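Page 42, continued from yesterday. The earlier attempt failed because a stray header line got pasted into the input along with the sequence. Redoing it now with the clean sequence only.
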Amino acid sequence: MSRVRREPILCAILTLFGPSLLLAQTTGTLRGLTTDEKGTPLAGVSIVASSSSQGISGRGAVTDSTGSFQVGSLPAARDYFVRATFPGFATMDFSEVEIKGGQATALRITLQPGTPFRERIEVRARPQIVNLEVTTTQTRLTAEFIDALPILGRNYQDILSLAPGVTDTDGDGNPNIHGARDTDVITLVDGVSTT
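This time it went through. Structure tokens are written below.
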């Protein structure tokens, strides 16, 4: 009779704990210690593990007061990427970290102080002030710009119509600018008037 009673109890135990025992064999744990360069434990360091083969990203932990951390239930893989970040310290990356099923992988992390000098780029510009007393407009075209254009002969009169508001409807090289007469145009080439 005692044999009959043991089998249902054994079946119930396997039913309750079987999946967790199976899961424990297919997943592993990442644990470790985080210190500074002097060996002092660092509390509050953010540890994040990810694996592209397992589709895992953002699994992480934060170190406790002893600098220890533990990231559990990680599927077994050999391509884990582990990143440790802490304000004031340089970010530390580890690639190809192997997590074995049913085991704990130990990782010791030593963070180095961040660089005291940080690069800072500041862009300052002043908007061009509109002079209400000047009623003329001008467009400057460089030789490099003209050389890059697909114009036969590189005649300067062929590119006058590229300036804003300029048209040369009859193609005689005497452009019309914003509706003004073609005699009101001054063209300078290297500072010399061509009128």
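Notes: The CA atoms of residues 53 and 150 lie 52 Å apart.
Reminder to self: strip header lines before submitting.
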